[in-house]
Design goal:
By secondary structure, this protein is an alpha/beta fold. The chain is built from ten helices and 14 strands. The strands form four sheets. The protein has a seven-stranded parallel beta sheet, sandwiched between helices. It has a three-stranded mixed beta sheet with strand order 12-9-14. It is globular.
Length: 329
């Protein structure tokens, strides 16, 4: 049995990974400062409240526990906020990760998995996007993650760190049990925002930009279910723990859906009216992000179970319907 430190494990994706590891009987420690995470989302493992940049706390964690692999989900991820306050993102996402990696090096912990993002690509040179394509982020959030990837590559060369960077596209959905799901404040992801309209918590869903170079003028994204993301992390960890080297993988279903299409699917799933209001573009939003995930499928055998966006939305609706006020319900 391996032992994992999940940094940011009380957040949306981290909590689903904690649940998936516990189901497989793995040892789990969760580090989260609860600035955006939720304590009720962590139902398994040992919870430690604290900051990933706290050198003293990191020293105690690695000294007192056997950690085989660290998985990092503790980044800030709001694109618009990163444009308005870039130093917040470079401090938390890049600077604090540097301290985490230093603590790992000092205590001989060699395996690291990064929750990275398609935002590292910026406006893509082709669609679907491959791992080798250019990386020119259009916002500080994307740059902060790309800087982490560079730190990982340099640390691998200098210290023998083994890492996997998983560049996800749009995480969505919720655990089939309906026990855990997506609860952000403020919420910025399209699917939960649309479902809040269906629940009567918002009057309309705003469509930011209708003049993109896409078939219906709205942004196109590749949606991947959070449970499938969790499984990819487990497969990546197994590969490294069994002797595999460092790697970078895209995580997506290789199909793009526009904002308008997602709204229409949500109307079908919920059976409720969801009024939409057209608005101006947001700064830093690329028009189309769709993954080529052939590499992870071939090398790790990853295959998403939830590759139908209607099923992804249905799982999210199951969570939001049971928890209309999120973890405060």
């Amino acid at each position: 049995m391996a032992s994992f430190l999940i940094v940011g494990g009380a957040g949306y994706i981290g909590s689903h990974l904690v649940k998936a590891l516990a189901r497989k009987g793995q040892g789990v420690f969760v580090l989260d400062d609860l600035s955006t995470g939720h304590r009720p989302a962590v139902r398994e493992g040992q919870f430690i409240q604290g900051d990933l940049g706290d050198r003293e706390l990191l020293g105690r964690i690695f000294s007192e526990r056997k950690i085989d692999c660290v998985m990092h989900f503790a980044a800030f991820s709001l694109v618009a906020e990163s444009v308005a306050d870039p130093l917040k993102y470079y401090d938390n996402n890049t600077g604090k990760t540097s301290r985490l990696l230093t603590a790992m090096k000092d205590h001989g912990v060699e395996n690291f998995i990064l929750s990275s993002t398609a935002a590292v690509y910026g406006e893509p040179e082709r669609v679907p996007i491959q791992e080798s394509d250019h990386r020119r982020p259009t916002n500080p959030y994307g740059w902060s993650k790309l800087f982490i990837e560079q730190m990982l590559a340099d640390s691998a060369a200098a210290y023998g760190l083994k890492y996997t960077a998983l560049r996800y596209f749009n995480a969505a959905g919720a655990d089939e049990s309906g026990e855990i799901g997506e609860d952000h404040s403020p919420e910025s992801h399209l699917i939960p925002l649309v479902l809040q309209v269906a629940l009567g918590q918002r009057e309309v869903i705003r469509i930011f930009g209708t003049d993109y170079d896409t078939p219906d003028g709205t942004c196109i994204r590749d949606y991947v279910h959070v449970t499938d993301l969790a499984e990819a992390h487990i497969l990546a960890a197994r590969r490294m723990l069994e002797g595999g080297g460092s790697a970078v993988y895209n995580l997506g279903c290789q199909r793009g859906f526009s904002v308008r299409e997602i709204i229409d699917l949500a109307r079908r799933v919920t059976g409720r009216p969801i009024p939409a209001l057209e608005d101006e573009r947001r700064p830093g939003d690329p028009s189309t992000l769709v993954a080529c995930s052939d590499k992870i499928r071939a090398e790790l055998g990853w295959s998403p179970r939830f590759d139908d966006p209607e099923k992804i939305i249905a799982s999210a609706w199951n969570w939001h319907g049971r928890h209309p006020r999120g973890y405060g319900s």
